[in-house]
Amino acid sequence: MDIVLISLERRHRRAEVEPAAELAEVIDTLWAHAVPADRLEHAGGRADAERLDLVLYLRTPTTDPDAALGAAPDAMPSAERRAAQLLTRCHRASSLLNGRYLPPATESTGRTSA
Protein backbone atom coordinates (compact mmCIF):
# COMPACT_ATOMS: atom_id res chain seq x y z
CA MET A 1 0.00 0.00 0.00
CA ASP A 2 1.34 3.43 -0.96
CA ILE A 3 0.22 6.52 0.95
CA VAL A 4 0.30 9.89 -0.83
CA LEU A 5 -0.37 13.33 0.66
CA ILE A 6 -1.62 15.78 -1.95
CA SER A 7 -3.31 19.17 -1.59
CA LEU A 8 -5.68 21.43 -3.47
CA GLU A 9 -5.20 25.16 -2.93
CA ARG A 10 -8.35 27.26 -2.76
CA ARG A 11 -9.16 29.91 -5.33
CA HIS A 12 -10.75 31.97 -2.54
CA ARG A 13 -10.97 31.62 1.22
CA ARG A 14 -13.39 28.92 2.27
CA ALA A 15 -17.05 29.79 1.95
CA GLU A 16 -19.57 28.75 4.55
CA VAL A 17 -19.26 25.06 3.76
CA GLU A 18 -19.04 22.50 6.52
CA PRO A 19 -15.48 21.07 6.34
CA ALA A 20 -16.69 17.47 6.65
CA ALA A 21 -19.24 17.99 3.87
CA GLU A 22 -16.65 19.66 1.65
CA LEU A 23 -14.21 16.79 2.16
CA ALA A 24 -16.94 14.25 1.41
CA GLU A 25 -17.79 16.05 -1.86
CA VAL A 26 -14.16 15.96 -2.98
CA ILE A 27 -13.70 12.30 -2.03
CA ASP A 28 -16.92 11.39 -3.87
CA THR A 29 -15.50 13.19 -6.92
CA LEU A 30 -12.25 11.22 -6.62
CA TRP A 31 -14.16 7.93 -6.58
CA ALA A 32 -16.36 9.01 -9.49
CA HIS A 33 -13.32 9.66 -11.70
CA ALA A 34 -10.95 6.94 -10.48
CA VAL A 35 -10.01 4.26 -12.98
CA PRO A 36 -8.62 0.80 -12.15
CA ALA A 37 -5.08 1.88 -13.10
CA ASP A 38 -5.16 4.48 -10.28
CA ARG A 39 -5.49 1.60 -7.79
CA LEU A 40 -7.29 3.88 -5.32
CA GLU A 41 -8.13 1.95 -2.16
CA HIS A 42 -9.10 4.64 0.38
CA ALA A 43 -9.09 8.44 0.68
CA GLY A 44 -9.33 10.84 3.60
CA GLY A 45 -8.19 14.30 4.51
CA ARG A 46 -9.04 17.62 6.09
CA ALA A 47 -10.12 21.06 4.98
CA ASP A 48 -8.69 24.32 6.27
CA ALA A 49 -9.04 27.95 5.22
CA GLU A 50 -6.37 27.91 2.49
CA ARG A 51 -6.41 24.38 1.13
CA LEU A 52 -7.78 20.88 1.22
CA ASP A 53 -5.28 18.18 2.20
CA LEU A 54 -5.95 14.66 0.94
CA VAL A 55 -4.39 11.37 1.95
CA LEU A 56 -4.74 8.75 -0.78
CA TYR A 57 -4.09 5.07 -0.17
CA LEU A 58 -3.11 3.35 -3.41
CA ARG A 59 -2.47 -0.34 -3.96
CA THR A 60 1.10 -1.05 -5.00
CA PRO A 61 1.76 -2.99 -8.20
CA THR A 62 3.66 -5.71 -6.33
CA THR A 63 0.73 -6.43 -3.98
CA ASP A 64 -2.12 -5.89 -6.42
CA PRO A 65 -2.94 -9.00 -8.48
CA ASP A 66 -4.99 -6.90 -10.94
CA ALA A 67 -2.27 -4.28 -11.49
CA ALA A 68 -1.10 -3.57 -14.99
CA LEU A 69 -2.60 -6.71 -16.46
CA GLY A 70 0.75 -8.39 -16.89
CA ALA A 71 3.07 -5.37 -17.04
CA ALA A 72 6.17 -5.39 -14.89
CA PRO A 73 5.79 -3.47 -11.60
CA ASP A 74 8.80 -1.31 -12.54
CA ALA A 75 6.91 -0.10 -15.62
CA MET A 76 4.06 1.30 -13.50
CA PRO A 77 3.84 5.03 -12.73
CA SER A 78 4.83 5.99 -9.19
CA ALA A 79 2.15 6.40 -6.53
CA GLU A 80 2.74 10.17 -6.56
CA ARG A 81 2.24 10.30 -10.32
CA ARG A 82 -0.94 8.17 -10.16
CA ALA A 83 -2.34 10.43 -7.41
CA ALA A 84 -1.49 13.58 -9.40
CA GLN A 85 -3.08 12.14 -12.55
CA LEU A 86 -6.25 11.26 -10.65
CA LEU A 87 -6.50 14.69 -9.06
CA THR A 88 -5.85 16.45 -12.39
CA ARG A 89 -8.51 14.32 -14.10
CA CYS A 90 -11.01 15.16 -11.34
CA HIS A 91 -10.22 18.87 -11.48
CA ARG A 92 -10.75 18.97 -15.25
CA ALA A 93 -14.01 17.01 -15.14
CA SER A 94 -15.65 18.48 -12.03
CA SER A 95 -17.12 21.97 -12.01
CA LEU A 96 -17.12 21.80 -8.20
CA LEU A 97 -13.36 21.22 -7.99
CA ASN A 98 -12.62 23.58 -10.85
CA GLY A 99 -14.62 26.39 -9.27
CA ARG A 100 -13.33 25.95 -5.73
CA TYR A 101 -9.67 25.04 -6.17
CA LEU A 102 -6.67 26.01 -8.27
CA PRO A 103 -5.48 23.38 -10.75
CA PRO A 104 -3.26 20.75 -9.15
CA ALA A 105 0.46 21.35 -9.48
CA THR A 106 2.27 19.93 -12.46
CA GLU A 107 5.89 19.90 -13.47
CA SER A 108 5.15 22.72 -15.94
CA THR A 109 3.59 25.08 -13.37
CA GLY A 110 6.31 24.64 -10.80
CA ARG A 111 3.77 24.67 -7.96
CA THR A 112 3.95 21.90 -5.41
CA SER A 113 0.79 20.08 -4.43
CA ALA A 114 1.75 18.90 -0.97
What does this 3D model show about the protein?
This protein has a single domain (2-64, 73-99), classed as GMP Synthetase, Chain A, domain 3 (2-Layer Sandwich), CATH 3.30.300. Strand 2 and strand 3 form a beta hairpin. The chain has three helices and three strands. Helix 1 crosses helix 2 (79-93). The chain has a three-stranded antiparallel beta sheet with strand order 1-3-2, with helices on one face. Mean pLDDT is 84; it is low at 107-114. With 114 residues, it is an alpha+beta fold.
How would you summarize what this structure contains?
This protein has 114 residues and is of the alpha+beta class.
Spell out the blueprint of helices and strands:
Blueprint: E1 2-9, H1 19-33, E2 40-47, E3 51-58, H2 79-93, H3 95-100
Antiparallel strand pairs: 1-3, 2-3
Spatially, the strands of the biggest sheet line up as: 1-3-2
User: And the CATH topology?
Assistant: GMP Synthetase, Chain A, domain 3
**Architecture (CATH level 2) name:** 2-Layer Sandwich
Average pLDDT figure: 84
In terms of quaternary structure, the protein is single chain
- What is the CATH domain class? Alpha Beta
Structure characteristics:
three-stranded antiparallel beta sheet; GMP Synthetase, Chain A, domain 3; alpha+beta; single chain; elongated
